Amino acid sequence: MPDNSTLVFLGDSLTQNGSWQEWFGDYEVHNLGVGGDTTDDVKARLDDVIALNPGTVVLLIGTNDLGKRRSVEHVVQNIETILATLRNELPDAEILLESVIPRSAEYADEIRDINRHIWQFASSVRTHYLDLWPALSVDDSRLNPEYTTDEVHLTPTGYEAWLSELEPALERVYGLPPKSRPIRLPELRQTS
Question: I want to staple 176 with a disulfide (CB 3.0 to 4.6 A). Which of 21, 54, 120, 171 is the partner?
Answer without folding.
Answer: 171
